[in-house]
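Reviewers of the previous submission asked for a worked example of the structure-prediction workflow described in the proposal, so we include one complete record here. The input consisted solely of the amino acid sequence. No template or homolog information was supplied to the procedure at any stage.
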Amino acid sequence: MRAPNIVLVSLDTLRADVAYSGRMPRLHALMNQGTSFLNAISPAPLTPVSHASVFTGLLPAKHGVRHLFREKLNPEIPTLAQLAAAAGYETKAIVSCPGMNRWYGFDMGFYDYDDEIPRLPDGSDPLHSVDVAVRGMALKRASLVLERALAWLDDRRTEPFFLFLHFFDTHWPYEAPDTFGQTPLNPYEGEALYVDHHLGRFMDAMKSKGLDERTLFVFFSDHGEDLNGWYPNDHGGAQLGHPEERGHGCLLYDATQLVPLIIVRNGVVPAGRRVHTQVRLLDILPTIAEMAGLADGHERDGRSLVPLLTTESEHRPAYMETYYREELAGADLAPLVGLRMTPKQKTIIDLGGDAVHCFDLEHDPHEKRPISLAPVGLKTTHRRGSHE
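From that input alone, the workflow returned the following structure tokens.
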């Protein structure tokens, strides 16, 4: 059986509720063309950490990336691109922000890794800033990602190929160049419409080239975005009690941890299926490996989603963490870790304190009424800068 092409698309900073709202027409069409996972959980609200888990199928403690520009991927762990290259795939990546720089080791396995981005408006190097809002002003726009992707596809003479596309437009500062005649609910959704338009152009090009029928597509977001009150489940900003949260990176609520995940392959993946079983971004690598026949002898934390394409199953517990809080100047914030056991149960622990915050997501879906516990002996000793 012929190996499929693989197209992995990261829609960076896209909230699940916006992705699944129907207000992004081309993404909605992809939902109807493939299978959508309505309870997909990110392991971290930070671009490099989350993508490292997608590329390795491992939790952050195992792949090694937990901050901005402090750690690199463990080179002994084969990435998805390396598995594809070893199977004879031509590999290409086009990424759009500082958090996907090759410094982390994300280029391992890619024959061509395009991580060119502009400098910040003041001329400084965005790689030297730990402020996620400031870094967001250095991006490769979706129009340019599309232009380079189509140019690369035009040069393809052999298959199979593995193409990774990374769109960063829904990140701050929410100033979309165009919304193509549509009226967004807010500036953030204006950016979502901008990405959606160019995503649609890419899918149209794949079809016109006759590639869509023999390609496995996986669309996901690495984390969502907390818009400081634009949505009912936001928690960020001084008025909501978390001035340290500027979009994402510091909190572990579902506004950032619940993400879209859609798999499309014509004739193979059920069309229009909605899966309610809780899954993780960790599950992407094992899924692609199974569906594309990639040999992988390495133990992964994720598990293939192929069985869920036809039936619901037991929820997969989802671990999440943020160590980025340690990097905020003057904040003196300890890391947070969390566990979303099911779509109904979630726990968040501050490693600098002794309180455990539990949430009943069925009756408190916006996580506004935590059940706070402080059992004797729970207090966690945390040394600033520790990875334990």
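The first strand starts at residue 5 and ends at 11. We consider this example representative of the routine output the project will generate in years two and three.
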